[in-house]
Specification:
alpha+beta; 4-stranded antiparallel β-sheet; 3 helices; 4 strands; globular
Length: 94
């Protein structure tokens, strides 16, 4: 199982909820984190390429920009300023 960060251009799009619901319901996305507006961290068995393809498909169907970056991350090496719930998720999934 890998953790990937998916960073994208969210902008102000009315169909964002449509995108979100389609993106996180993929059966190979086992858990996800979305405490920063234009960023997801996903725990998945998908490869970076497969996750990127899934993002693109969901974005196109929702009519939002497809610009994005998928990168594998090490959740045990982290730092920043986040709310407590975000840190709890990172600690329990890292």
């Amino acid at each position: 199982m890998n953790n990937y960060i998916v960073s994208y251009d969210r902008g102000t799009v009315p169909a964002y909820r449509t995108f979100h619901d389609a993106f996180v319901k993929h059966p190979d996305i086992k858990n996800w984190w979305h405490y920063i507006k234009s960023c997801y961290i996903v725990k998945t068995t998908l490869s970076a390429n497969e996750l990127s393809d899934h993002f693109t498909t969901c974005a196109k169907e929702a009519g939002i920009p497809t610009t994005h970056l998928v990168m594998k991350v090490d959740l045990s090496d982290r730092q920043g300023m986040l709310i407590k719930d975000a840190w709890t998720w990172l600690k329990s999934n890292g």
